[in-house]
Amino acid sequence: MSIWRKLNTLFRASAHEPVAKLVEANDIRIFEQELRDAEQAIARSKRELAHLMAEKTRLERDNTGLQAAISKREQQASQALEQNEEALALELANLIAEDETVLQRQQQQHAKLQQQETQLRRQLRDSGRALKHFHSEMRLAKTNRHAEQVTRQLRGHATGLHSHMEDLNVSADRIRARQTEAEDVEAALTELDNEQNNGNLNARLKAAGIDNGASSGEKVLARLKAR
């Protein structure tokens, strides 16, 4: 059963190979799309942060208004007590208590919004720096990819050029060999012509009884006898 499990695992792994190769072949395009997605996410986060900050500003205004209303009613309640208007003072006190409850709740909400704003600002700042870094990585990756393509092209051109140079060397050697052979043949023909011309001359001199100065056995023997 172990061998069947291994074969099953191999088949499943092979099924993912085309996808993995496709991803590898398009890694830069995928990286570019991921950068665009990240930029869109950052833009959405900025809008969310802007809405959050607007809500926080609205709460600040409401809280300021509530605080002013509470201060005014406290003064009114104090004046009512000075005039022994207990019922009026109690009514004002109830209103103050309601406003204070709302103010406390809104202050807590404001504090939460402030905390969220701080976190979002930090995340956007970090994300912006990271995005700049990834854009630099993208430019470098494209440069390296282009350099790889140029290198492959130059390697192919260099291989072709080397083949052309070899062909030229072979052709030049063949031409030089043929020229050398032609020169050797011409020299041999010249030599044969000279020999033939010299032979004819010696024959004519001998026929005319003229000594051509060539050495012979009779001449050598006569010279020795003369000594």
What does this structure look like?
- With 227 residues, the chain is mostly helical.
- The chain has a domain at 2-130.
- It has 4 helices and no strands.
- It has helices at 2-25, 27-82, 86-207, 217-226.
- Helix 2 runs antiparallel to helix 3.
- It is rod-shaped, with a radius of gyration of 56 Å.
- The relative contact order is 0.05.
Low-confidence stretches: none
Query: Helical residue percent?
Result: over 70%
Terminal residue distance: 120 Å
Number of helices: 4
Q: Sum up the overall morphology in one term.
A: rod-shaped
Keywords: Coiled coil
Protein name: PspA/IM30 family protein
Coiled coil: 28-123
Organism: Marinobacter litoralis
What layout of secondary structure does this protein have?
Blueprint (H helix, E strand, L loop, with lengths): L1 H24 L1 H56 L3 H122 L9 H10 L1
Short description:
Helices cover 93% and strands 0% of the residues.
Main features:
mainly alpha; single chain; rod-shaped; 93% helix; 227 residues
